[in-house]
């Protein structure tokens, strides 16, 4: 097993997917020879040729529609949207077409072979348009799977599972961890099952739930809480759609408390959906209201990024408030 | 019914049109040595205008050089230059009326400078301090000024193109003899918004100039992987639009074309497409390394076409500028930029209260409550929030 970073793990997964299925086509803005602005696709054009790994013209709408067309006719399409902030020009193709291909045709056609990969999230001084976490726009749309890895190991296993899944997947990559997260990643082929949350750390006083880049935030908050004698159970949701209600509910029944952390704005964010469901599932077990530590209800700012972020300190405060409710 | 087919000849054998069916001439006025082509028709330009244009060129070169340096030193987080494209940007901006509205992509700060954006204003935006008109919300280079009719830059590409069509139409409806001008790269012209914007402008008769800076690359993607047609200009006639292609490194050609495009747009309430053939001499942005996708030889070749040098030679030939004046101008701006950097980087950031401003016309109760919660938190941990420690 090699110690590699998340970008290398993603590159590895992409290469493996192309190696094991010669119908796999990889494309997007600047992904060809250059290897993408983050270099996630480095070397793949050399390895698999220009017909299978290439630059597209600069049109997300076109990229998504093209992916749908490829997959509807039996290919495996992996499309990179350069930043999640720029997925919106493609939103009609994704939410009306990708998501509904199978349903609206009575399964005469489907685009299960589509995977959209896109870097998301802040903490990189990227301001408005290089920092957003738009996952909730997609979790609202039936027919799409939404996946977010938290480290290099997950990135490879979840990406391979996403590419091979029989449903279209939007794979959000936490860009602030791209180079920062380094870990052991098996050289060989492996998949991590979609739709399953992971219990990262056992605890008894409160369940902390997050995904992607916010995982290290809740882990840090849990460490701070531990010094005050609070024991946190830490869950990584990994797949947002469909999400693993059972694992979360089991944990909350054990700890009696739940805190959900995400970077996207609070209102309409995915934490709201989780809170409502868990409240139904665990009403009689709850010792305090389900707590949400999320981004503010403003666009993503530049200079006040620290203030905007649902960081470890805010999470720590919310943990204390919850256990002393 | 006027349908395109009605004017066309009929043939009785299959014959296809292709890329070469559209032959687009390129307007060139100024030669590399600073002399004008024989028979060239010069734009309206006198000594004062030439100086204003050249002054803007020099300022922009200095700004780009210094701020890229500042980015490398970690004093600002990001920067983008327009090096190599000054003639396209300044030549077009100099053809406009101050009340014409500019909607830029992001690489057109020279047009803003031409309008009168001060060195201090540039620095305030770049350093995101409390005097930044955009209140420190966007990354460096996202300038905007309502006073100067320069709409604030938005990063998502091509969104400004259909917006410009709307701005142009609004100017027409308000009875103003003004136009909107919209800048974009040849890469952005692949977006759906490009088609939507140009088609609507032609159909709705919006007085708008669509100015494409065809600089050869969209980040790493060369034009050969961006489109197969004859550039961007070939699409103009397809939309039913007046169209011209110019040498984008030729200040006089850009000036001439834009002056006439503007006159035509105002007279006829109609859009015009201009394609300026140029080259991005610098990197895409401070985060980019072009050596990964293009050769040093290619860059060196384009150095020979430096638009600023060419225009300078013309001015010298005219007796309007000396080498000495030129170097004094560079020196003046070098020290001005340096002095303003020192001031701007010491100013504080906007207060944390601005975080919830301008989301709506007035902050909603929920936003106010979120701000209060945030401030209470910052008061507890001031050291962890250095940008607002002082403002709570
Ligand atoms: C909708 C959208 N997609 C992708 C990007 C990322 N991006 C920023 S600049 C750029 C290239 C633009 O090229 P071009 O329009 O030719 O302008 P140039 O940079 O050459 O001036 C890309 C892909 C973006 N800003 N917006």
Blueprint (SSEs and pairs):
The complex is a heterodimer of chains A (325) and B (392).
Chain A: E1 2-5, H1 6-20, E2 24-28, H2 44-48, E3 53-55, H3 60-72, E4 76-80, H4 91-98, H5 101-104, E5 114-120, H6 135-139, E6 145-147, H7 152-164, E7 169-174, E8 182-185, E9 198-201, E10 206-210, H8 215-227, E11 232-236, E12 239-241, H9 245-255, E13 258-265, H10 270-282, E14 291-295, H11 305-308, H12 312-323
Parallel strand pairs in A: 2-3, 2-4, 4-5, 5-7, 6-7, 10-11, 10-13, 13-14
Antiparallel strand pairs in A: 1-8, 6-12, 9-11
Chain B: E1 26-27, H1 47-72, H2 86-93, E2 101-103, H3 109-115, H4 119-126, E3 150-151, H5 160-173, E4 180-185, H6 192-204, E5 208-214, E6 217-218, E7 221-222, H7 235-239, E8 242-247, H8 251-268, E9 272-277, H9 296-303, H10 307-318, H11 323-344, H12 365-380
Parallel strand pairs in B: 1-8, 2-3, 2-4, 4-5, 5-9, 8-9
Antiparallel strand pairs in B: 6-7
Bound molecules: thiamine diphosphate.
């Amino acid at each position: 097993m090699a110690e590699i970073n998340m970008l290398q793990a993603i590159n590895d997964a992409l290469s493996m997917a192309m190696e094991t299925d010669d119908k796999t086509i990889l494309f997007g803005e600047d992904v060809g020879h250059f290897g993408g602005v983050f270099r996630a696709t480095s070397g793949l054009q050399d390895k698999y040729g220009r017909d299978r790994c290439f630059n597209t013209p600069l049109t997300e709408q076109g990229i998504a529609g093209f992916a749908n067309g490829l997959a509807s006719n039996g290919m495996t399409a992996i499309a990179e949207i350069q930043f999640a902030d720029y997925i919106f020009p493609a939103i009609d193709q994704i939410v009306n077409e990708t998501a509904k291909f199978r349903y609206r045709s009575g399964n005469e056609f489907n685009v299960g072979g589509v995977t959209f990969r896109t870097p998301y999230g802040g903490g990189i001084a990227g301001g408005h348009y290089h920092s957003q976490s738009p996952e909730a726009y997609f979790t609202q749309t039936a027919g799409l799977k939404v996946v977010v890895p938290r480290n290099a190991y997950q990135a490879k296993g979840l990406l391979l599972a996403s590419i091979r899944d029989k449903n279209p997947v939007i794979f959000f990559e936490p860009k602030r961890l791209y180079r920062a997260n380094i870990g052991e990643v098996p050289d060989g082929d492996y998949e991590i099952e979609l739709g399953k949350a992971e219990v990262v750390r056992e605890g008894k006083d409160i369940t902390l739930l997050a995904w992607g880049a916010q995982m290290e935030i809740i882990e840090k908050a849990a460490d701070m809480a531990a010094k005050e004698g609070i024991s946190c159970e830490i869950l990584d949701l990994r797949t947002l759609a469909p999400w693993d209600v059972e694992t979360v509910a089991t944990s909350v029944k054990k700890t009696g408390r739940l805190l959900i952390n995400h970077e996207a704005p609070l209102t309409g964010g995915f934490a709201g959906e989780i809170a409502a469901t868990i409240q139904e599932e665990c009403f009689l077990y709850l010792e305090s209201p389900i707590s949400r530590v999320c981004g503010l209800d403003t666009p993503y700012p530049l200079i006040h990024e620290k203030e905007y972020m649902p960081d470890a300190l805010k999470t720590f405060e919310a943990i204390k408030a919850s256990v002393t409710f | 019914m006027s349908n395109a087919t009605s004017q066309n000849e009929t043939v009785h054998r299959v014959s296809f049109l292709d890329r070469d069916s559209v032959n687009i001439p390129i307007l060139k006025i100024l030669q590399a040595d600073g002399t004008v082509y024989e028979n060239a028709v010069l734009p309206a330009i006198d000594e004062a205008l030439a100086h204003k244009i050249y002054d803007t060129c020099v300022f922009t070169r200095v700004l780009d050089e210094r701020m890229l340096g500042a980015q490398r030193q970690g004093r600002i987080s990001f920067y983008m230059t327009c090096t190599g494209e000054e003639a396209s940007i300044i030549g077009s901006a100099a053809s406009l009326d101050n009340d014409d509205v500019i909607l830029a992509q992001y690489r057109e700060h020279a047009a803003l400078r031409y309008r009168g954006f001060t060195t201090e204003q540039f620095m305030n935006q770049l350093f995101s301090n409390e005097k930044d008109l955009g209140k420190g919300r966007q990354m460096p280079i996202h300038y905007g000024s309502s006073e100067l009719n320069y709409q604030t830059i938005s990063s998502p590409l091509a969104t400004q193109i259909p917006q410009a069509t709307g701005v142009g139409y609004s100017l027409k409806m308000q009875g103003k003899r003004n136009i909107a001008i919209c800048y974009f790269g040849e890469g952005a012209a692949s977006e759906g918004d490009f088609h939507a914007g140009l088609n609507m402008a032609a159909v709705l008769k919006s007085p708008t100039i669509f100015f494409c800076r065809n600089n050869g690359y969209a980040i790493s993607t060369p034009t050969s992987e961006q489109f197969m047609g004859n550039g961007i200009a070939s699409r103009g006639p397809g939309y039913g639009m007046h169209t011209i292609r110019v040498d984008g490194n030729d200040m006089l050609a850009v000036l001439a074309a834009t002056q006439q495009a503007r006159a035509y747009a105002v007279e006829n309430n109609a859009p015009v497409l201009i394609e300026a053939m140029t080259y991005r001499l610098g990197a895409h942005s401070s985060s980019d390394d072009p050596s990964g996708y293009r050769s040093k030889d290619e860059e060196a070749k384009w150095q020979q076409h430096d638009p600023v040098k060419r225009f300078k030679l013309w001015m010298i030939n005219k007796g309007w500028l000396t080498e000495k004046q030129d170097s004094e101008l560079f020196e003046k701006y070098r020290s001005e930029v340096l002095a303003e950097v020192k001031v701007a980087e010491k100013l504080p950031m906007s207060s944390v209260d601005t975080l919830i401003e301008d989301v709506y016309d007035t902050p909603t109760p929920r936003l106010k409550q979120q701000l209060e919660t945030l401030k209470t938190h910052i008061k507890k941990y001031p050291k962890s929030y250095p940008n607002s420690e002082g403002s709570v």
